[in-house]
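Tokens in:
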């Protein structure tokens, strides 16, 4: 309990000192004013604020988006977040120091292991397809599929509709980021269209094809897994 510099005696010596800096991780406490008491529409930006983050601020921090069963859908370093597919999602803030295992898309967040890590409280976000005035919420007169699913990145998108008119086919990730527009032109009723998508530069995970027209929206999930 004394001070090392106050040690006295007939004959003693202290070695050089070793300075040890303790590192710790803290996922903090996160909150949002969007989506906690009522569902949000697809593509609605969900801002998240952080408090009580401690030593994890700016050091080995990531955001983890999971499904209800804790399957990791995406890992990102920034927000806000939006979602293109109706469903229930959980947002977590992850702080970690040193080794972290299991932080990959498709894994279960409950299986994370490592030297020092901490997950914040989860934010549960219910996402719904909101109806536009005069339009159906989801087009039931269009078919949209892809082959193969899962794929190694190369994918063939197949679609047809029961109407004539312009359609737009986009690719999104699970955070709502528009990756690429694959098709944007007029089509004919009953004709099957095929579009190739090269996603070999994308990380493994779940992605969405979104077919939009004046008749509504059709969505299709696919997975890249190598």
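Residues out:
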């Amino acid at each position: 309990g004394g001070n090392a510099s106050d040690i006295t005696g007939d004959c003693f010596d202290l070695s050089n000192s070793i300075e040890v800096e303790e590192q710790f991780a803290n996922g903090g406490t996160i909150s949002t004013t969007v989506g906690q008491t009522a569902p949000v529409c697809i593509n609605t930006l969900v801002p998240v604020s952080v408090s009580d983050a401690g030593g994890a601020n700016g050091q080995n921090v990531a955001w983890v988006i999971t499904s209800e069963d804790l399957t990791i859908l995406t890992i990102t370093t920034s927000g806000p977040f939006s979602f293109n597919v109706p469903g229930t999602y959980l947002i977590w803030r992850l702080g970690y120091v040193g080794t972290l295992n299991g932080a990959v898309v498709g894994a279960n967040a409950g299986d994370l292991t490592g030297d020092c890590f901490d997950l914040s409280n989860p934010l549960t976000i219910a996402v719904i397809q909101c109806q536009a005035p005069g339009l159906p919420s989801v087009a039931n007169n269009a078919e949209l599929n892809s082959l193969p699913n899962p794929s190694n990145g190369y994918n063939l998108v197949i679609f047809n509709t029961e109407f004539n008119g312009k359609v737009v086919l986009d690719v999104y990730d699970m955070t709502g980021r528009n990756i690429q527009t694959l098709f944007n032109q007029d089509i004919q009723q009953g004709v099957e269209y095929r579009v190739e998508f090269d996603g070999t530069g994308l990380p493994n995970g779940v992605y969405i094809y979104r077919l939009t027209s004046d008749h509504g929206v059709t969505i299709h999930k696919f997975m890249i897994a190598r």
